[in-house]
Amino acid sequence: MLTGTIVVAQNNPEPKKKTDWSKVDLGKRSADHFMIQFGYNGWAGAPDSINNKGFSRTFNVYLMFDFPFKTNPRLSVGIGPGIGSDNMYFDETTITINNRRNIEFNRDTITQYKKYKLNTTYLEVPVELRWSANPANMNKGFKFAIGAKVGTLLDAKTKGKVDLDADGNGGYIEKIKAKQVFNGTRLAAIARVGYGNLTVFGTYAITEFFKEGQGPQGMRPFSIGLTLSGL
After folding, report:
1. Using CA atoms, how far apart are residues 105 and 110, in angstroms rounded to an integer?
2. 186-205: b (≥16 Cβ within 10 Å) or e
3. DSSP three-state, residue 211
4. How many domains are there within the chain?
5. Which of 111, 166, 205, 230 is least surrounded by CB atoms within 10 angstroms?
6. Residue 204 included in any domain
């Protein structure tokens, strides 16, 4: 009788080596450059009596500086100055912003406007905490960022392209500038998520749009759109 032991060979895969992120070569990482955003702009908390129309939009341009963490460059902090511009469009409405007491939204069915908008422009500084799946090449890979931006109001104006007014005139632009009813400082929460150079962004204002007692209270601008950036 033959006796013995049968040995079964097992192929044990080698454990994956953990990446030492502190030694990742960042030579091809995107340099500091512009971040461009375009999207939809809205007002949270606006009363139903305000008659918006069409695609109100936001356009932002920032020069961002990126500071990767030395121990883990997948994480970084981004900061930089820029300009944020919001355009809100209206239908059968005129807005009085140069009244020192408060802003007025007036129903106007007599004047025919091709376009009528309220524009606000801010000097802003966004600050982002960023994460990237491919820190060596920020132009590729999944990424997201959260943070905040603070800004100061540079300009506020209404602009209407008049087709026909009550006197039968038309073909001219009506523009009024005034900042006194608006909150001069804007603080907003920001977030981005996407892949490579293209991300989806969202913002929500923490501060109210109008000064206390000078406009509808509880109104906070928000926006959502696309960002073009390698960071």
Report:
1. 15
2. bebebbbebeeeebebebeb
3. coil
4. 1
5. 166
6. yes
